[in-house]
Amino acid sequence: MTEDQSAHLKTLIACEQCDQLQHRQPVPDHAIACCQHCGSKLYSHDEDNLTTSLALTLTALILFIIANTFPMLTMNLSGHSQQANLMSASAALYEHGSQALAVLVFLTSILAPLLELIGLLYVLTALQRKSDRPFKHLSKVFKAINYLTPWRMVEVFMLGILVSLVKLADLATIIVDSGLYAFAALILVLSALTSSLNKPKIWQKLEQHR
Amino acid sequence: MRRTAASEGLASCHRCHCLSPIAQHACCPRCGHKLHLRKPKSLSRTWALLVAASILYIPANLLPIMTTTSLGRVQSDTIMSGVIYLLHSGMWPLALIVFVASIFVPVLKLIVLSYLLISVQRKSTWQPKERVRLYKITEFVGRWSMIDVYVVAVLVSLVQMGNLANIEPGLGIVAFGAVVVLTLLAANSFDPRLIWDAMEPQADENQQGSAYNQSLDAQQQ
């Protein structure tokens, strides 16, 4: 591919929903570009907010560690008490004969968010420091992050915890512990991170630095 | 004929959405993902996952998702009885959420995806915009069906008090987890661009178009 050709290709974009080929145009702040054929979203304002994303990633990682080290719920029943957090939820399933389900819960509530955050931290720091290391493996890491995102389901887990709280309410006393507060904060930070993360921009940067 | 990336011989990478001429690149020059004009074997893959999910949907609803033993009293819960319990304890907003997430959404996904597949196979030209929107909705809501899996996980880990109270996971929840994962994969393997491809003029009218449509058909089969 000649230089000219690849430069021309960068000015084009194909709609993800209908494959319509169209020219990229700059959009004003807080605006989004829509497909001229089917009207679905193409891209939003091209903000360079890698620093914000980096800060949010770091916050999310810290909250994730707190949520996993402290208990989330404590149940008291006639003098007995039992604690639970993300890890014990998958471990309990594993011990009680649902190994496949335990793996699914572990993957969606612990492994996917953890790997995604670590990977994101790595990619964003490397871009921030503008280091001279080859960026070839960085794009591999970023690609892996894109695979993981749909399997991160911490917000669904939160709702699951709420439902279990209601189900246990007339059986025993439930104490909400610090881990759950950190987990709730984690969900807010993660959604802020999702909306601030400018994936096309990061792909562009990864390509430039190669 | 509409100017699509595929008609220009350009493939949009499924991972990073960068455009490259498919004749020159087998893999995306930016991220290294394998390039296709459309998701490969989209229709048959989605059908296979959908059929598997529909079969597992039956045990997921009939078998107990958990068994509670409290002071010698044994009680088995299915997905529906869990919703009814929430309703009886006066938490109707939560009952509604669980009903929508665990019963309504999986059925909706199975029906909507089957409908989209059939409409693509019959080369339907009816309301493509609305059908793409339908697809986007099913793709978005699918993950919320995992609620019941997490509820069982949390309850099993908390309620382990020997003879006082004990909760064990049932086979139903394993089947249900499989249904959720299979429908997520099915939604992921469907390519919404196929809906729009059916709107293009028939292949034999245009020589270039015919070559293009054939290559697309070959990829889907």
Task: Give short descriptive properties of this protein.
heterodimer; A: alpha+beta; three-stranded antiparallel β-sheet; two-stranded antiparallel sheet; 8 helices; elongated; B: 221 residues; two-stranded antiparallel ribbon; 57% helix
Q: Spell the H/E element sequence of chain B.
A: EEHEEHHHHEHHH
Overall form of chain A: elongated
Distance, first to last CA of chain A? 17 Å
Structural category of chain A: alpha+beta
Describe the structure in brief.
By secondary structure, chain A is α+β, with helices and mostly antiparallel strands. Chain A has helices at 3-10, 50-69, 86-95, 99-129, 136-148, 154-168, 178-196, 199-208, and strands at residues 12-14, 21-23, 32-34, 41-44, 73-77, 80-84, 173-176. Chain A is built from 8 helices and 7 strands, in the order H-E-E-E-E-H-E-E-H-H-H-H-E-H-H.
Folded structure, characterized:
- The complex is a heterodimer of chains A (210) and B (221).
- With 210 residues, chain A is α+β, with helices and mostly antiparallel strands.
- Chain A is built from 8 helices and 7 strands; from the N terminus they run αββββαββααααβαα.
- Chain A has a 3-stranded antiparallel β-sheet with strand order 6-5-7. In chain A, strands 1-2 form a two-stranded antiparallel sheet.
- In chain A, a hairpin with a 6-residue loop joins strand 1 and strand 2 (21-23).
- In chain A, helix 2 packs antiparallel against helix 4, helix 2 packs antiparallel against helix 7 (178-196) and helix 4 packs antiparallel against helix 5 (136-148).
- Chain A is elongated.
- The two termini of chain A are 17 Å apart.
- By secondary structure, chain B is mainly α.
- Chain B has helices spanning 42-62, 79-88, 92-121, 128-141, 147-158, 171-189, 193-197, 207-220; strands spanning 10-12, 19-21, 66-70, 73-77, 165-169.
- In chain B, strands 4-3-5 form a 3-stranded antiparallel β-sheet. In chain B, strands 1-2 form a two-stranded antiparallel ribbon.
- In chain B, a hairpin with a 6-residue loop joins strand 1 (10-12) and strand 2 (19-21).
- Chain B starts with 9 loop residues before the first strand and ends with a helix.
- Classes of the chains: A alpha+beta (210), B mainly alpha (221).
